[in-house]
Specification:
This protein has about 230 residues and is of the alpha/beta class. The protein has two domains: about 140 residues, P-loop containing nucleotide triphosphate hydrolases (Rossmann fold, 3-Layer(aba) Sandwich), CATH 3.40.50.300; about 70 residues, no CATH class. Helices cover about 35% and strands about 25% of the residues. The chain has a six-stranded mixed beta sheet with strand order 6-7-8-3-9-10, sandwiched between helices. The two termini are about 30 Å apart.
């Protein structure tokens, strides 16, 4: 699904914020991305949703060398990616319903199908009474759920989420994590950037740990603990 080979990124003439990054996300995998603040998680996510090109190294997505693609060719790849941004990036003049429906409308889906799918997802997310509300009239947690619903409504092949449960209470956060798990079981490759140690320990997903611009992999502590205790 994704392969980074010795990728580096710098902004302008400054030092590299990502250095010699190499990893692979297999199709249908589920990873957490963790690391201290300032480690470069947002920059790495930006490369993965094609918001920037690397300064050096090779990025392959969906069997294509994205470094060599022209700007207009990147749009077809972006349509396969769902992104939950930390700052939500909702369109303020659109209702909750229309924000979530936007990716389906871009794809040209029939309005009846859009209406049914968006209604069902917003009801499930606990936003059934806010479908006509504008983002500025809603709480941060409600806006975050809209952003998540918009990212998953098309059942993307790759889902990238930057702190998707950061503004949510534990029950809603766990409910949305279970939604991500359901999508993963249906074949979506998922990468979630989070600082929430307790959340990561509840799920047996491999971790990519970013520190000072470098990356390593690590199985979740909960998974290791269960193997040591002889559960598997």
């Amino acid at each position: 699904m994704i392969r980074f080979e010795h990728v580096g990124l710098r902004y302008g003439i400054g030092p590299e914020v990502l250095s010699d990054i190499s990893f692979t996300l297999e199709p249908g995998s589920f990873h957490f991305l963790s690391g201290p603040s300032g480690a470069g998680k947002t920059s790495l996510m930006r490369l993965m949703y094609l918001g920037r090109r690397p300064t050096r190294g090779l990025i392959t997505m969906f069997d294509q060398n994205v470094n060599a693609l022209k700007r207009e060719q990147l749009s077809s790849i972006r349509q396969r990616i769902g992104v939950v941004f930390q700052d939500f990036r909702l369109l303020p003049h659109l209702s909750a319903f229309d924000n979530v429906a936007l990716p389906l409308r871009i794809q040209g889906k029939p309005e009846k199908e859009i209406r049914n799918n968006v209604h069902e997802l917003l009801e499930w997310a606990g936003l059934g009474e806010h479908m006509d509300s504008l983002p500025d009239t809603m709480s941060g947690g409600q806006q975050q759920r809209i952003a998540i619903a918009r990212a998953v409504i098309t059942r993307p092949r790759l889902l990238l989420a930057d702190e998707p449960t950061g503004n949510l209470d534990d029950d809603i956060g766990l409910r949305l994590m279970n939604l991500f798990d359901q999508l993963n079981r249906m074949g979506t490759t998922i990468l979630i950037a989070t600082h929430n140690q307790q959340l990561m320990d509840k799920f047996n997903h491999e971790r990519l740990i970013l520190d000072n611009g470098h990356i390593q992999t690590e199985e979740s502590k909960n998974w290791i603990r269960r193997k040591i205790e002889g559960v598997f």
